[in-house]
Specification:
This protein is of the alpha+beta class. The protein contains 9 helices and 12 strands.
């Protein structure tokens, strides 16, 4: 059976992250967007011409809400409303009913799943915090770099003036520590340098990280690789993505070493995600990179602050690795999430395939 054609007036709803259903005055479904298809587990073709009440057990309440929206000529909104999917799954949503101006007599129902509300609010908080972190890191680096240069220079002059070579040990400590801090400041400023965007194979990035980890920590780590080799290339700054993944992997291994974890394991997984929403935008396809370890997990008291600068669950850690990774992933229009408990921590990097960076790549190549 040929699926019904989509009215061109509703094509603007195709990319909407919110589930949207358009129905007429006889309560017959005219259109469902892809987000509604996913939420309600029913395709547009299957739902077309069915009664909208198939999703609403409380038919009386739905009609009252519809009457209210019609009489007041404004939207009717209900929070924490329960509906049923085609597979009889109960879903808690925010429900909005509005009359369409384009087609008098037609109405639209918008449904936002409650856990999506919470996730969007969390993303907003993380984005605001990430911007604050970025500004703090840049200002901190600039403020410290100049005094460090003066400190190092003074130590070098002092070393030349010392008559006792045994005292040079102390000036060398000053110089080496100044160099260490200078390198740290350079890392803080790295995310603010212009990216070099190019076509990038995500598995080459991950394999480079694996080789760096092996050279740094030896062969005490067991790697498990589960790659989806069909993933396409994306436009990205290859070196920065290597740094972002490396920071997460290095944190995981340091945490396992400090905890004396037996049979330390790092699992690297790649998958595609379809019709996924983050940063208030719906992405048709995204790449997901999972970095999993079997270490002690992130302490509960810092899980909400793990992306803040200078917050670390590792006594030897600087607390800068994860904020830097977050900055880099955000530059690529992506996001980082994590789950953690004793014996299992997983960081997931989501990178949209169509990330809008193609124009920047072209500019870099000119």
């Amino acid at each position: 059976m040929t699926p019904p054609l989509i009215n061109k007036n509703y094509q603007g709803l195709e990319q909407l992250a919110t589930a949207a259903i358009v129905f007429d005055k006889n309560l017959k479904i005219i259109y469902m967007n892809p987000s509604a298809e996913v939420l309600l587990e029913l395709s547009h073709g299957q739902a077309h011409n069915q009664n909208i009440e198939i999703f609403f057990e409380d038919h009386k309440f739905f009609k009252l809400a519809l009457d209210s929206a019609t009489k007041k000529q404004s939207s009717y909104r209900e929070n924490e409303y329960f509906i049923k999917s085609k597979q009889n799954k109960t879903i808690c949503v925010t429900l909005t009913i509005s009359q369409l101006n384009k087609d008098p007599g037609d109405f639209i129902v918008e449904l936002i799943q409650m856990d999506q509300h919470l996730r969007v609010a969390k993303e907003e908080r993380m984005f605001i915090q990430q911007q604050a972190n970025s500004e703090l890191l840049r200002n901190l680096a600039h403020e410290i770099r100049n005094p460090l240069g003066g400190l190092r220079g003074a130590a070098q002059l002092l070393e030349k003036e010392l008559g006792d070579h045994s005292l040079e040990e102390y000036t060398q400590i000053i110089i080496k520590e100044a160099d260490r801090l200078q390198n740290l400041m350079n890392k803080l400023l790295t995310p603010h340098q212009l990216p070099a965007y190019e076509e990038t194979n995500i598995h080459e990035v991950i394999e480079r990280v694996r080789s760096l980890i092996l050279s740094e920590f030896g062969k005490d780590i067991t790697f498990v690789r589960d790659y989806d080799v069909s993933l396409p290339e994306i436009i990205a700054d290859r070196e920065k993505l290597i740094q972002a993944v490396l920071n997460i992997a290095r944190n995981a291994i340091q945490s396992m070493q400090n905890d004396n974890t037996q049979n330390m394991q790092l699992k690297l997984t790649t998958r595609s995600e379809r019709q996924i929403v983050f940063h208030k935008k719906k992405h048709a396809t995204a790449i997901r990179i999972d970095i999993e370890d079997n270490g002690p997990g992130i302490p509960l008291n810092i899980q909400d602050k793990i992306f803040y600068p200078l917050v670390s669950g590792n006594e030897q850690g600087s607390g800068l690795g994860l904020p830097l990774s977050q900055n880099i992933v955000t530059q690529h229009k992506g996001m980082i999430t994590f789950i953690s408990q004793t014996g299992h921590t997983k960081f997931s990097i989501l990178l949209p395939i169509n990330n809008g960076l193609n124009d920047l790549e072209a500019n870099n190549n000119e």
